[in-house]
């Protein structure tokens, strides 16, 4: 699989040309690998849960939907968060490597601001983390999905956020990418510090395989809900 990536040398960051984003020249240590190493992965166990279906929900315009984004309260003690499953015309999923967690890849996600609708938050986070605006929302998970932070991660985030959350409660949205790969920019829209170093379109099995262990159960559930769209 082709991986689009860029090297982050120092701050402030500088935006490379599109040609560099597509086929960059990156100097890596001899022990580094540019391609994610995929372990043998067992077939996903699909437990289908009917998602909320949307009709042509464009990121940069007003929209209509068959159901509004669910605003029921998440479990107490969990940070409200959105997850984004972005697919292309080949039914592959966008995933990127985290700069702060070696060998860890994930789908975009981010916190929901106070008073912000989860759907609006998902559109914002997709733009902030990937630069992508050419996308349509196809579906939404019907309920909040949660994962707990491991103790060491919880302690780190407590210092970073100033709040002691048990974990995150997520609303997941399925987006269809309608633009070209050149639109992807891991510097995002410039409003937030970059989180990712490399990106690729990969299979659902690879998405789970490359995720950190404590996120794998939620990833499996998300991909089971959205499974009909990967056919």
Describe this structure in words.
The model is unreliable at 5-48 and 60-70 (pLDDT under 50). Helices cover 20% and strands 26% of the residues. It has helices spanning 18-22, 118-130, 151-161, 204-210, 216-225, and strands at 3-5, 52-58, 64-65, 78-87, 93-98, 105-106, 109-111, 135-140, 145-148, 167-177, 196-202. It is of the alpha+beta class and 231 residues long. The longest helix is centred in the middle third of the chain and has 13 residues, at 118-130. The protein has one domain (3-10, 48-65, 77-230): Nucleoside Triphosphate Pyrophosphohydrolase. The two termini are 19 Å apart. Helix 4 packs antiparallel against helix 5 (216-225).
Offer a concise description of the structure.
With 231 residues, this protein is of the alpha+beta class. It has five helices and eleven strands, in the order βαββββββαββαββαα.
Arithmetic mean pLDDT:
78
Shape descriptor reads globular
The structure class reads alpha+beta
CATH domain topology: Nucleoside Triphosphate Pyrophosphohydrolase
The H/E string reads: EHEEEEEEHEEHEEHH
CATH class: Alpha Beta
Strand content: 25-35%
In the CATH hierarchy, what is the superfamily?
Answer: Nucleoside Triphosphate Pyrophosphohydrolase
Cofactor: Mn(2+)
GO biological process, one term: nucleoside phosphate metabolic process
InterPro entries: Nudix_hydrolase, NUDIX_hydrolase-like_dom_sf, NUDIX_hydrolase_CS, NUDIX_hydrolase_dom, RppH
EC number: 3.6.1.17
